[in-house]
Amino acid sequence: MKNILEQCKEKAQQVRLREDERVAMRTFLENLTEAHPVRETTHDRLQKAKKVLSSYQFLPLFMRRTTMPVVLIMLLVGGSVSFAAQGSLPGDALYGVKVNFNERVEGALSMSGEAKANLEAHLAERRLIEAEKLASKGELNSEIESEIESRFTAHATRVEERIEALSKSEVLVALDVASRFEASLNAHEGVLARASGTESLNMAVMMNEDALPQTMQMKSFVATDAREEVSANVSESVRVQAEKITNIRANLEARISQNASTQNKTSAEGKMKAAQKKILEVRAFIDSKTEANSEARARADAELKLAENAYAEGKISFEAEDYNEAFILFQKSLRLAQEAKVRGTLRHNLEAATDLILVDPMPTSDDVRVNVEGDASIHSNQTEINGGAKVKGNLINIGL
Amino acid sequence: MEHSHTKQEFLSAYDMYADAIFRHCFFKVSDREVARDITQDVFTKTWQYLSDNKPVLNMKAFLYKVAGNLVIDYYRKRKTDSLDLKIDEGVQFASEEVMGGQNAEIGIVIEALQKLPENYREVMRLRYVDDLTPGEIAEITGQSENAVSVKIHRGLEKLKHILHI
Questions:
Q1: Which of B7, B19, B99 is nearest residue A17 as measured by Cβ atoms?
Q2: Alpha-carbon distances of A259 from A191, A246, A262, B106, rounded to whole Å
Q3: Residue B123 has what pLDDT?
Q4: Closest approach of A22 to chain B, Cα-based (Å)
Q5: DSSP letter assigned to residue A262
């Protein structure tokens, strides 16, 4: 059967056009295609436009019909996620995007050794600011705190490595980076120490003690003590790193002093100008951010005074033609001015945060009183505990 | 640019499939002249379609589809008797011409193909006269390849039954 069908196929194959029929039909069709050419459609015109555009190197990816929507979505979604992540804090959903994506992009974008070192220093500082913000909100638990601490230490270690690498070829640049990082660490160390110290506790209690029953005050002490330990760990890390960087900076300065040839009048002069400029900048900053005769102004003035003193000493050395000494003193002046600015900024930001917290409609002594009255005498103990818990949260918020 | 590309594809499709389409039509209309005219129409219509910038994914299947439609049109125009009867007559005539009386057995098989029920006949003919694969037949008839294979298998059984073998 199969065989017969195969033969059937073979036989059928013999049915075909004669050669003359074939050629005649082909000629007819060729004429037809010329008489009725393929119509140019919108699609064709698009294709032509695309070909012109794709001669520019940067366009094809965006112009391709398939990739354009993807690129647009990436730009829109990616851009906004990344932007939204920028202000996130540890514990937020977008914090991972911030540290793993945004900051890596920043790293990829900084090219020179100096830029990379400065970026690491900046990121280390950012971790500290996060810690401070969380502490001021009362959200700094030990888990987040250890994450911040490990990230901070990693950044700080990389700063040191970068400085070490830089010091081999550009010792002056290395000193610059070290000095700036030191200023930043010193300023933050002060703030964190204050946050975990008794100062904030006193402040918190002062603000509330009139309104609170004795038991609640006791509770607030316990709560603040716990937080003290938490931010004390970060504060300790900062202290350790600050010491390290101070040593590094001192070593760099020693190297510069020993090697007189690298140190001449010109570089001392350069440093002098930089310090002078910085002092003026910080002066303007203090004037704009603090109110005259306020405590903040007084503190900032005192801090900047240190920088000005160092500058004056440097000037004396400079005139005595001790350019090595002058260079180091101007460097010190610059560092102190930077530190004053960081401290000023932190104080300013924290004050703003504290103001915000104070105007928040949070459970105040009035609420507690209402509770007590509402529940009458039967559950008074219970109420007190509830009230205590509320106030505990409140106190942590005001802590900074 | 676009035109010459399409034209090139079209003419090479003609070179490749003209005989097959002619054969397909010939076994359906049983008239050499008519089959030749229909073949030319098939390619003319296909070019009109292509020149309108409409896409053709499978040229071979497309040509067989157009051919099938034109054969139906041809019979409709003649308006004589039923389509089936005409096809039957045509094939008898065609088989005689092709075989030239040399192989009576094959003539009988081709006749037997015509006796199959309508839904088996087309598939069996595409398979054993036009020598198309089940995949190509599926494309032309709009059935799944699986359904085509089943039809071929059952068609063979029925053919055996008709031929008493």
A1: B19
A2: 37, 20, 6, 109
A3: 92
A4: 8
A5: G
